[in-house]
Amino acid sequence: MKELLSGNEAIARGAYEYGVRLASAYPGTPSTEILEYIGERYPEIVAGWAPNEKVAVEVVAGASYGGSRALAAMKHVGLNVAADPFMTLSYTGINGGLVMVVCDDPEMHSSQNEQDTRNYAKFGKVPCLEPSDSQEAKDMIGEALNISEQFDTPVILRSSTRISHSMSLVELSERKEGQRELGLKKDPVKYVMLPAMARKKHPFVEQRLKDVAAFAESFAYNKVIMGDTSVGIISSGVAFQYASEVMPNASFLKLGMVWPLPEKMIRDFASKVKKLVVIEELDPFLEEAIRLMGIPVEGKNLTGLCGELSPEKLEIALKGKSSAKSIGSIDIELPMRPPNMCPGCPHRATFTALKKNKVYVAGDIGCYTLGALPPLGMLDNCLCMGAGIGIASGLARTLDDVAKGKAVAVIGDSTFFHSGMTPLLEMAYNGGHSTLLILDNRITAMTGAQQHPGTGFTLREEPSVKVSVEKLCESFGLKRVITVNPYKINELQKIIKEELEVAEPSVIIAKAPCALLKTGRVLPDKPLRIKQDVCTGCKSCINTGCPALEFVKIDVPEPGKKRKGFSRINAALCVGCGTCLEVCKFGAIEEAS
Amino acid sequence: MSQNRVYNVLIVGVGGQGIILASDVLGKVAAKHGYDVKKNEIHGMAQRGGSVSSHVRFGNTVRSPIIKMGEADILLSFEQIETLRYFPFLSEKGQIVVNDQKILPPSVFTGQQEYPNDVLERIMTKAPNTIVVNGQSVAEKIGNLRVLNVIFLGVLSKFLDIPAETYENTLKESLKPKLVDINLQAFNEGRAMVTA
C-alpha cells in the first residue's frame, strides 16, 4: 500500500529508511516539516533544532566524520548562513553519507529572495539531486547518501516549495543502517584544512567532480523519454511535471542530478531532436551549461527568469496560448488578504507603543516582519536574519547628529539566537546609541511554533536548557537591559522614550508568549467589548490592525455627534489582550461581562 | 472522456478555516479509491488569516501538482470573495460550491476598502448552477463550528464518483476517536444538501 506523503514527509521517511543517524536544522519555510517529522516519527534518528543553519551543517559534519549517515535541512537562504562550513566540507569530504536538503522558494511565497541553490552546488563543486515528486524525494535521499559515500562528498538535495509541500503517493520500505564503521578516526590530511592539506584536497575536489559527471551518464534518475522529436525538453524537479503535463508527447531528458551534468547524454539527446528547450525554474542554470557545451538551446527567452513556473505559464511560453477553457473572470476590485498578526499578538502591542515614538525601525525576519504592513507600517528595512541590529548600529553611529536616538532595531527571540547575538556584541563593543527591542514571544512562531534554546524544550519536547535573553545581553557588558510586558503599552512607550534618549546602547525585552501558544498563556481569553455610545470613531484601536476589531460606518449622521462610525469587537476572535483598551483615550472599551 | 481523466478540485478560503485538513482527507480518499493523487497548497502563512488555496488532483496518472488555470472541475470556496480571487481557475463547465460567509480582510475592517456586497449575485450570473451553502448555520446546528470543512467535504462528495463509505472510512482513520461521530454527522449533513 502506498501512502500519500508531502515532499518533506518523504524526505524525513528517506532519512529513516536509508539509515540516517543524525539530523539537524533550523526552521525555515518550506523546509521546516522535515525535522518535525523526523522528531515525531523516527526515534532511531538523533535529531534536534540547531540555533542556525551553519551550526546544523557543522553538527551534521561531525556525525558524518564519525561514520554516521547524517542530514541537514534548511531553506535556500539558510545555505547562505551555512555557506562557510559547506564550502570547505567539500574539501574535507565526508565519512558517513552526508546530505544537505535545501528547499528553494520560487515565487517567494514565504521568503525574502528567490536565489537558486543549484549555483551553490556548482560553487562548492558538489553533486546536486533534484526530485520531482515525493517518491523521488524519498528515493533520492538514499541515492544522495550512496553518492556521498562513493565519491567522498557532501550532496545537496534541492527541493522547492511545490515539491516540499505537494503530496503524492510513496511506496514505503524498512530501515537499513549505513555501512560505515563508527568511531573517531585520525586523518589530518583529510580533515584538517591547513593550507598545505587544502592544497592537496583541491585537485581531489576537481577530479571528484569529473568522476561524478561520468557517473551521471548512467545515473538511473537521469532518464530519456523519447516521443515526438520535433522538440526535446530538458527539465528537472517540478518544472518537469509541468512540462510533461503541457507537452505529453514531446521527447524528454529528465535530470535527477542537476550538477554535475551528463554531457554525453545531453549531446546524444540533442542530436535526436530538432529543437532543444530547457524548462527550469529561476536561473538559466542548465541552459547556460548546455550552451557552453556548444549546443544550441532555448529556455529563459521563453519562460523568463522571475517567479515560479505553472502549467498555464509554460503552455503560453511553448505554444503561444493556453488550451484550457476557463469560465473567465469577474472583474471587480477585490480587497487583498495578506497574512496578518493574530488577535492578541504581543508584537502588535510592541509596535503600537513604538509607533508613538516616531522612530526608524531596522527590522528582521519573523512574524513581526508583518509589522511592515498597514495600518502599523512600522518596519523601515528588512534584509536577512539578524541584520536589523547591525543596521541600526551602522545608522546610529553615522547619523548621530542628524537623527539622534531615532534608529532602533527589532528582532524576535528565535532570530536573536539564530544570528542576533553577534551583532549585539558589536553594538556593545563599539558603542553607538541604538535601542534594540527583542520581541521575545518564547517560540519560533512564523514557521509554526518550533522550540529553540530559549524555550527550555527540544525538538522532541524534552526539557533542556532555557537560555536567558536578559543574562546574555548583560554578559555582553550592556548596562541597560529592561524586560517589559508589551501589553502595558503606555508604560512600554515611556520606557522606549527614555531609552532612546540615553547616550548608550540599550535593550528592551518585550516578553509575552505568542498568542497561539497554549503553554505559559498570559492572555485572559475573554473578549473585550466596545461601549458603542461612548466610542467616538477615532480609529485608534482600529489602527493597531487587530483582526478582532471592525469599523462600522454610519451612513446617516447621528444628532449631536460628529463621528463617522464606531468600532466593534468580534467576540469570536478577541482573546482580551487589552492592546485596544490601552490605546483608547475615551474609556470606550471594557471587559465583557 | 479521455483515457486519463484527471479530476481537478480547487479548495479556497481563509487561513484557519480547515481547508488544508479538508484537502488532506480528499487526497487520502482518492488514493484509497485507487487513483494516483497529487495535492498542493501554499501554507507558509496560512495560520495568519491569509488567502489559502489547495489543489487536489486525481486520476490514472497525475503529473503537475497544481491545476492549470481554467481546468478546475470544482471550485469549493469557504469564503465569498475568495471565490472571485480564484474564479479563472474554473473550467467553463466547472461547478462552484460556495460557503455563504464573509470574512473581512484588514483593509476592510479598518475602513480603507469596501467588501463587495453583490458577490453571490455576480457568481450566479456567470455560473448559474453554483451551490451556495450556509455552512455556519449547519455547523451551529451540529454544535461545533470546526466541522465546517467536513460539511463541505460532504457537499463536494456528491460531485465526485467516489463512494461515501470511502470518505467515512478515511475520516474514521484520520480523526481522533472522540471527533469521529460529529464529523461523520457533518459529512452526511453536507451530502444531504445536494439533491442530485
Give the gist of this structure.
With 593 residues, chain A is of the alpha/beta class. Chain B has eight helices and six strands; from the N terminus they run βαβββαβααβαααα.
What do you see in this structure?
The complex is a heterodimer of chains A (593) and B (196). Chain A is of the alpha/beta class and 593 residues long. Chain A has a seven-stranded mixed beta sheet, with helices on both faces. In chain A, helix 7 links the parallel strand 6 and strand 7 (155-160). Chain B has 196 residues and is α/β, with parallel strands linked by helices. Chain B has one domain (7-192): Pyruvate-ferredoxin Oxidoreductase, domain 3 (3-Layer(aba) Sandwich). Chain B has a six-stranded mixed beta sheet with strand order 2-3-1-4-5-6. In chain B, helix 1 packs parallel to helix 6, helix 1 (19-32) packs across helix 7 and helix 6 (148-157) packs across helix 8 (177-192).
Percent strand of chain B: 15-25%
Secondary-structure-based class of chain B equals alpha/beta
Q: Strands of the largest sheet of chain A, in order across it?
A: 3-2-4-5-7-6-12
Kindly report the average pLDDT value of chain B.
92
The spatial strand order of the largest sheet of chain B comes to 2-3-1-4-5-6
Series of H and E elements of chain B: EHEEEHEHHEHHHH
CATH superfamily of the largest domain in chain A: Thiamin diphosphate (ThDP)-binding fold, Pyr/PP domains
Strand content of chain A: 15-25%
CATH domain topology of the largest domain in chain A: Rossmann fold
Q: Which CATH class of chain B is shown?
A: Alpha Beta
Distance between the termini of chain B: 21 Å
- What oligomeric state do the depicted chains represent? heterodimer
Shape annotation of chain A: globular
What's the CATH C level of the largest domain in chain A?
Alpha Beta
Task: Please name the CATH architecture of the largest domain in chain A.
Answer: 3-Layer(aba) Sandwich
Question: What structural class results from the helix and strand content of chain A?
Answer: alpha/beta
